[in-house]
Amino acid sequence: MQGKAAHLKRWVTAVMALPVVFFVVGPGPEWLFTVFILVVALLGIEEFYSNLIPDLPRFIKLSGHVLTVFFFGAIFIRQIMILPLITLLWAFIPMTYLMLAKPSHSPQWTAMTARATLGPIYVAFPLAMLTAIRMRPNGHIWIFFLLAVVFATDTGAFYCGRIFGRHRLYEAISPKKTWEGAIGGTVLSLLVSGFFIRLFPVLNLFPALVIAMGISIAGQIGDLAESMLKRHHGVKDSGSLLPGHGGILDRIDSILFASPMLYLALVFL
Q1: Quick one: DSSP state of residue 244?
Q2: The pTM is what?
Q3: Given this model, what pLDDT does residue 96 score?
Q4: Residues 120-128: what's their mean pLDDT?
């Protein structure tokens, strides 16, 4: 009963969030989409810090958030040349602070610097690519395409895994995931993407299916990567913000790996 209640709560949360996501991605102004994704990025980075580096100094945490705001702002005003500098500061500020404020020969500080740098790169960078995609011609349609493929992959993997799952995909990281679920998720994502392209013919069917397969596979790898981080640090959910889903990172883990795949595909089309 508890599992069914959690599953129902998951669907209720998704249905309630759907109108908001539809408006922000579709008819909403560009600035609103950027602000929405920025808020998601900041919440995701905060979860990353809390789970992986709970003793991170407040100054480093604050600098990571501030630089993330600057990063999204630079993309919004089309100042792309600033982005490499902000990316460097994500690494240089933690290194400089720990060197000056907490001098130590302990490898703990090296690990803390690496994790502090990884947080914004892992969370903010791929989410920022969504804002860049949104600025392209038919950008909102491509965002919907990405979301449809990721959702279809998650749904297909979940139900095919429950019904047909026999062979573990990566038991050491996520014992419940199976090869049957992964294949089922990919197949459903291809079906959904084919239907989507019929409704919104922004691309020929075959290259759209190739992109959808890449998004589906990348998304499943992203899901496993997030599971690895949580398992290594003894965390069941990254947070509790979304009822039935856990935290922000639990909901966007697939998108973090899938959005660069779509971005690269659109750049080289």
Answers
A1: T
A2: 0.90
A3: 92
A4: 95
